[in-house]
Fold this sequence. Notes:
This protein is mainly α. It has a domain at 91-275: MetI-like fold (Orthogonal Bundle), CATH 1.10.3720.10. Helices cover 76% and strands 1% of the residues. The protein has helices spanning 2-27, 33-37, 44-54, 60-72, 86-121, 126-140, 143-157, 183-216, 219-226, 231-260, 263-268, 274-283, 287-315, 317-327; strands spanning 170-171, 177-178. It has a two-stranded antiparallel sheet with strand order 1-2. Strand 1 (170-171) and strand 2 form a beta hairpin. The chain is globular and about 85 Å long. The relative contact order is 0.14.
Amino acid sequence: MLAFIIRRxxxxxxxxxxxxxxxFALFRYVGDPISSMVGQETSLADREALRTTLGLNxxxxxxxxxxxxxxxxxxxxxxxxxxxxVMELILQRLPATLELALVSGLAAFIFGVSAGVYTAxxxxxxxxxxxxxxxxxxxxxxxxxxxxxxxxxxxxxLQWLPSFxxxxxxxxxxxWTTGFLxxxxxxxxxxxxxxxxxxxxxxxxxxxRAEMLEVLRTDYIKFARARGLSNRTVHFGHALKNTLVPxxxxxxxxxxxxxxxxxxxxxxxxxxxxxALFINSVRxxxxxxxxxxxxxxxxxxxxxxxxxxxxxxxxxPRLRVERGAARH
Length: 328
């Protein structure tokens, strides 16, 4: 187990190094950041002096080595656009993104697994048919259109929920801010969370349903029924447990995708998260912020994948048996 963890950590470090190289090389050629930092009246000499001060005239390998060395220490430089430390900007907005991602991801997992199990066990029922039909909306419609429709219905027509912003927040120790502790914060979270989690919920639901139907046809389920076990024990003690292995994989990857691709939702609802910061940085060619964002997203994916691999040992005992047999 320890050797497996060490091997995965080494692989993760190599992945992060490649991502850092790609991000740093890509954003070197998206435009000239000096043009967005100074006015048209700035002389060429002043522009060149600024490039020298920022280290933009150094060889690529020198710039990349400096970037890696500083990134290991949590230093991604100064934002060209806002003239503030990049890590400080990200940490200010990270609570909003993580709060939105965790709520939408948790809701997608709970409702997705519940609906998947129900539609698998009652696949010919009227409600199951309706759920499968409605799930096509989450799969077919793009995220921005779902968000606009929810704003039109619940914010404009019914005026039940706010259409933008995060609402009032409360500062917690360590610089963390949350909207869970205020009424406006909880209300502001509903529409973005539904928009962001709807596709993931339908994906998980359809996966659970398909896996559940497949497991229910296996011989050991038939044998469990022949032993006289109750339907509850067969469905939830045997079938559902064996269904969760691929579900954990998809859920882990989708949680990373929720954080990475919350950009659209944050833009539609003007949610003050990291995604909105990235969009504004792209417009201003703010290279340090863009590179730091991609490295952060890659780190989140790597950590989630490592956690998913470890959860396999908890859910599927066959992996532990196979590795034990391999050692002997």
